[in-house]
Design brief:
By secondary structure, the chain is mainly alpha-helical. The chain has one domain (1-111): Winged helix-like DNA-binding domain superfamily/Winged helix DNA-binding domain (Arc Repressor Mutant, subunit A). The protein is built from five helices and three strands. Helix 1 packs antiparallel against helix 4 and helix 1 (6-16) packs across helix 5.
């Protein structure tokens, strides 16, 4: 299994824990945005939006460039790929569980009906 620095993954999952920050990332996935544009869909000040962006920047999920008085933000996908790689270990767990459930269901469907399951079917 791939080893990760816990602190960087912790920062990524902390950043992703907030629905506002997840929505900001969704907007940034479509391209670079000004801080004001990221704040616009929410009822928050630019200062509050900037605090959210600082958390995303701290996790390495967002980079910011300044052009005059405007601040532009861009999605940095690397930390998301690291989080996805960490989560993918659990894909194998769930696949094994679902395969076992499917085998159980198929085994039950293949069994001949028992006497108790035939009650009420006599004519």
């Amino acid at each position: 299994m791939v080893e990760y620095q816990a602190s960087s993954l912790d920062r990524v999952f902390h950043a992703l824990a907030d629905p506002t920050r997840r929505e900001m990332l969704r907007h940034l996935a479509q391209g670079e945005r000004k801080v004001g544009d990221l704040a616009a869909p929410f009822t928050m000040s630019l200062a509050a939006a900037s605090k959210h962006l600082k958390v995303l920047e701290g996790a390495g999920l967002v980079s910011r460039r300044v052009q005059g008085r405007l601040h532009f933000c861009r999605l940095e996908p690397g930390p998301l790929a690291d989080a996805q790689a960490w989560l993918s270990a659990y894909d194998r767990f769930w696949s094994a569980r679902l395969d076992a459930l499917q085998a159980l269901v198929e085994a039950e469907e293949a069994e001949p009906p028992t006497l108790s399951s035939r009650k009420g079917t006599r004519k």
